[in-house]
Task: structure prediction
Amino acid sequence: MKKYHVYGVGNALVDMEFEVEDAFLESMNVDKGVMTLVDEDRQHELMGHLDAFEGKKASGGSAANTIIAVSYFGGRAFYSCKVSNDELGDFYVADLKAAGVDSNLGEQRQEGITGKCLVMVTPDAERTMNTFLGITEHFSGDELDAEAIAASDYLYMEGYLVTSETGRKAAIDARRIAEQSGVKTALTFSDPAMVEFFRDGLKEMIGDRVDLLFCNEAEAMSWSGSDDLETAIEHLKQIADTFAITLGSKGALIFDGKQLIDIAPHEIRAVDSNGAGDMFAGAFLYGITHGHSFYEAGNIASLASSRVVSQFGPRLDAEEHKEILDIVLG
Result:
């Protein structure tokens, strides 16, 4: 038995989530529905206007949400990331520990500014993110723990790392360590913009191919350069042995290496799409590392992600994870 079920690498960001109207995004000239990297001045400008709204704060970043989900379901998880020695960095470290996730973070951390992601959720449940990476822009191989990678069932890489030269290299180094150690590799495309603007970098992170890929329908289409899902599936087979494509209200489609599996959706009233894909990946990784079939893991992931979408915030309360397992697995 490996020490960890999943080892994750990604950007460490304190997520600050606000409910806003479309008019706010328009007035602030914010592109809706995507993640946009901004500098510190721009984020301060937005924060000055968002102070009028009630917000929620949590340790986050895409891969962090996934890894915390693995832990809350009962898996053993490790997360490599970078925060500074400021107040938000202290908050981030404490939040990870409270979630039961091991990490490379300790008391001795570098001077700098911990990254923040402003998540703006509109009434149609769409999430728009403006991110200032701060010190996580310099996440590198120095933050990797080769022994912990080798002691894991899966390495999980966040596609957002492709935007940073050192982050992309760290993900590639982590993948090579995993491959040399017989550890399976998983990657999420993270966002349609990553596929559109950083395709070559994602190819570097993938290498020859990964064992498991996560993406949504828009990302799959963008990768294939086609608006036909069957064509997109064939393109994904060229870079991944298995994959999961989330389809929003239509459920998900999973390829287990031999056959395509339809995963049914759950009818809910969507209020916040932030974290749905992260939760799907975390629940699915938990399932397949705990002896469940791709079909069972997909159903766990489908229910868990629907629960996330029906509330505000990218994570569920810890106790909800056991309830989900009881419903799906009986």
In short: Residues 26 and 301 are 34 Å apart (CA to CA). The radius of gyration is 18 Å. The mean pLDDT is 94. The domain at 4-329 is CATH 3.40.1190.20 (UDP-N-acetylmuramoyl-L-alanine:D-glutamate ligase).
